[in-house]
Amino acid sequence: MTAHTSTVKPCKGLGMEGGIARWYAKLTHKALDDFKKDAQRVAGMIPAQGNVLEVAPGPGYFSIELAKLGDYRVTGLDISETFVEIARSNAAQADVQVDLRRGNASDMPLDSEAFDFVFCRAAFKDFSEPVRALREIHRVLKPGGQALIIDLRRDASRNALSQAVQQMNLGIVNSLMTKTTFRFMLLRRAYTKAEFERMIAQAAFAAHEIRENLIGLEVLLKKAR
Known about the structure:
The protein has 225 residues and is of the alpha/beta class. The protein is built from eight helices and seven strands, in the order H-H-E-H-E-H-E-E-H-E-H-H-H-E-E. It has a seven-stranded mixed beta sheet, with helices on both faces. Helix 2 crosses helix 3 and helix 6 (158-167) packs across helix 7. The longest helix is centred in the last third of the chain and has 18 residues, at 172-189. The radius of gyration is 17 Å and the shape is globular.
């Protein structure tokens, strides 16, 4: 397990607890098809009975969908106590086994070289120690393991943001709240491709690939065998 203990606040902003976490869980449930697609994609990248870690699973939708697809050992690690409770309840309702724990992405209470794959969606920009989080992801991966980080990119245009929110079909009120949250909070915390490149250079990954889309980035990381 990791030797250092971080004293830095684990996430930027107020954090997701209580009513905010429950609102987010309800909002993101509308994007369940996206979580299913992510799960199917990752299932094609991991071995049978593989160990998968989701960092910051929130309500647990991805982890639950992945657990439905095969005999995978799925773990979720989130700093939010409310999210851990919600995700555990969701997993129980779905009748799947997901090991959901509370912990800091920059100081994971997990064994080294334990996972075949690490997944993180829509949360990396909120980590207060992103380079440490990357190093921790590298540490917990098995040799030859991979990680996929999906998040916003700070240089997304206003037009692209409006188009993306429109595609979510959230309704007038939630669309306005989501667009405002993206523009004035989330995008400001996000990274550009170049900034991600510089952070990755401070970790020990053997290879990486970064793809840009409408308002986000997909960062694929590979650990040496």
